[in-house]
Write a structure and sequence with these properties.
It comes from Mycena belliarum. The chain is of the alpha/beta class. The protein is 30% helix and 26% strand. The radius of gyration is 24 Å and the shape is globular.
Length: 571
């Protein structure tokens, strides 16, 4: 049996520390270059340019922890749901809750109230952190779940002051400033970091609505150290000097912090490397391009749609981005032609992509010491990971053979909350079955071939066809439906609904109202689902949805059929 591993050793991983202790206390890992002088800048507020030093971050986290302890009765093991865009206080608020033993779940703030209800019930969250712009769906979700309005804590934003009677982060910090108590600091027994849940991320599954993936403190710290070991030999960068991540370099912070890629890679890992994070609440291409120059950003951590926009913007070629050292893409595959275009715009930068999923965080990255990484490759498995290729016949494949990626390592999640069937099929004896069809090269580089789980990747976010199909079946115009994906330069993929129209819909179609029927079906989704799940790929009418004898949708048959009819436009 062939196993694929990293050529680099895995350093020690502390198993008795929480994430806040790892970053804020006196502990220092041998591979870390995290800067802990009180005057060292950690964050920049992109909109205002305000800098947050380590000393300010530490003190504000201390005060917020005390304020929460005094005013909110946060119990050990309680779940707090963050439902907010990126914010300068986002990370320190997470750490304050975790210091009190809470588990933090992170949700997409663009979800509808219906979707938010699902997240609250699935995670069993008892509090929600948001900002005043999202109080509409939040209050609707609280009413549906029976949670009181006092469960809400607001992040401060200048555009919209908090309504009276709702606690804000700044108010709780003020409460903590008046406290004479010592800052709570939960201690873990040796090995306790492996059993203490830290974070919950929501990952779509093919069976429908998002699954809740629980990650332990140990898994998060392990992945930070794994990523670092791939990039450094001790504290010496493996990359060529002009591409290296160096302490004091500025890195983009525009990926959503509610996503595992955004929080653990874009925030935690870069902080561990000693980089300065430019915190961006909302992406705007023009503002982003200006910020690259304004803050002398050296490293761009992005998803493919960001790169597409930059490559299509005519102003990019006239700007001087010679100081940009690296561009890293994740969340979805980036094509070789797109990587080539980006290289022309940023001639001094290394451009690469990696592979990860919420269930394991990041599993593969290119070797930063390789001056010419293979186009299309996600690099090699991180130190500590062991990967196998499970072929369709049940045997394991070697280099060049295709099959499902199966892997194990120290950052594997604790499993799905309340989903025994999902745990049985994905987390098998410590091995994660990814649902991705892959192959490895002779030298151990990972290439993604296809997705066996049929998830649609829209701008890096996972969209489950089954969730949309379940929703569409409730519409009176839909007798049956299958959702597949079409390729799109900007979004990567877009959902397309292949609909068997109901009798009433057929009558309207015969009367020349087919466009209105399609629009009504699309509106049924856009009225109830977050924008990434909208049927931006359109609606098409078909005679029948092919199914197996057991009733399973034969999605690939329809996908291949549309591909042949449309010149390979279907993913």
């Amino acid at each position: 049996m062939t196993e694929f591993c990293s050529p680099f050793p895995l350093p020690s991983i502390p198993d008795d520390l929480t994430i806040p202790q790892f970053f804020l206390e006196g502990y220092t890992h041998p591979n870390s270059t995290v800067r802990k002088d009180p005057t060292d800048v950690w964050f920049i507020d992109d909109a205002t340019g305000r800098q947050v030093t380590f000393g300010e971050l530490r003190v504000r986290t201390d005060h917020l922890t005390l304020g929460l302890a005094a005013s909110c009765d946060i119990k050990d093991g309680a779940v707090v749901l963050f439902f907010s865009p990126n914010h300068i206080d986002y990370v320190l608020a997470i750490w304050a809750f975790q210091r009190l033993g809470a588990i933090v779940a992170t949700g997409n703030p663009m979800y509808t109230s219906e979707e938010l209800v699902h997240l609250l019930r699935l995670s069993k969250a008892t509090r929600i952190v948001t900002d005043a712009r999202f109080l509409g769906p939040v209050h609707s979700a609280l009413a549906a779940t029976g949670l009181p309005s006092s469960a809400v804590i607001l992040l401060d934003i200048a555009e919209m002051p908090a309504p009276s009677g709702i606690k804000t982060i700044s108010e709780l910090v003020s409460v903590g400033e008046q406290s004479q108590l010592a800052v709570p600091n939960q201690k873990l027994e040796p090995g306790g970091g492996k059993t203490k849940a830290a974070l919950i991320f929501f990952s779509s599954g093919t069976s429908g609505k998002p699954k809740a993936v629980a990650l332990s403190h140990y898994a998060v710290l392990a992945n930070i150290i794994q990523l670092t070991a791939q990039h450094r030999d001790g504290t010496r960068p493996r990359a060529l000097p002009q591409w290296a991540f160096l302490p004091g370099d500025v890195v983009t912070g525009l990926l959503p912090f509610f996503h595992v890629y955004g929080l653990i890679v874009n925030v935690y890992w870069t902080c561990f490397l000693g980089l300065i994070l430019d915190v961006v609440p909302k992406f705007s291409l023009s503002t982003f391009l200006t910020s690259i120059t304004k803050y002398r950003i050296s490293h761009l951590i992005l998803v493919p749609p960001h790169i597409v926009l930059m490559c299509k913007d005519p102003s990019v070629g006239s700007r001087d981005y010679g100081h940009v050292k690296s561009i890293f893409s994740g969340g979805a595959s980036i094509s070789v032609p797109l990587m080539t275009q980006a290289t022309q715009l940023f001639p001094n930068a290394s451009i690469s992509q990696g592979y990860g999923m919420s269930e394991v965080i990041i599993a593969a990255l290119p070797d930063p010491g390789d001056p010419e990484p293979d186009g299309g490759s996600c690099g090699k498995m991180l130190p500590g990971f062991v990967a196998k290729v499970l072929k369709a016949d049940g045997s394991y494949g070697g280099p060049g053979e295709e099959g499902e990626l199966v892997m194990t390592g120290p950052s594997v999640g604790m499993g799905y909350l309340g989903d025994q069937e999902g745990n049985k099929s994905t987390f098998v004896n410590g091995w994660v079955h990814s649902g991705d069809e892959v192959r490895f090269s002779e030298d151990g580089k990972l290439f993604i071939v296809d997705r066996l789980k049929e998830l649609i990747k829209v701008r890096g976010f996972q969209v489950a066809p089954a969730e949309l199909e379940d929703h569409l079946m409730a519409h009176p115009y839909v007798a049956d439906v299958c959702v597949i994906s079409i390729l799109d330069d900007y979004s990567g993929e877009l959902p397309l609904a292949l609909v068997v129209p109901s009798a009433a819909a057929k009558t309207a179609i015969d009367d020349g109202k087919g466009s209105e029927i399609k629009a009504a079906i699309q509106k049924h989704v856009s009225d109830h689902k977050v924008k990434d799940k909208w049927l931006a790929g359109g609606v098409r009418f078909i005679e029948v949805v092919p199914k197996s004898p057991s009733g399973k949708l034969l999605r690939r048959i329809l996908r291949d059929k549309v591909r042949s009819e449309n010149g390979a436009v279907i993913a």
